# Entry
Amino acid sequence: MPVHVELDDASIEALQQQLLEEIATQKVRALLLDLSLIEVIDSYTSYIIHETAQMARLLVCKVVLVGIRPAVALTLAQMGIRFEHVLTALDLEHALEILASGGTPSDEKDLL
# Structure
């Protein structure tokens, strides 16, 4: 699911509700949130993305955040937002590789 930059607060909330309903009704087991179109992120959008990822996990759905830009990563880190148990990928191809490998990034297997 691509997240577009022009989403206002009401739109991001509607997107969250739609995603959670789809996960529950369709028994979705993996959600790829493509953030590559977001160049700058505000606190409310980052909160909703984080909250959505946590809710999806409660519905037994793996979440992969895809294409996070450096400025967005910096903002999320500065705001103290931690995406625990949420995978990240450079692009959609990388996200699919991660999911195909059982949800563990290949680079992570080599870390000490």
Observations:
- The first helix runs from residue 9 to 26.
- The radius of gyration is 14 Å.
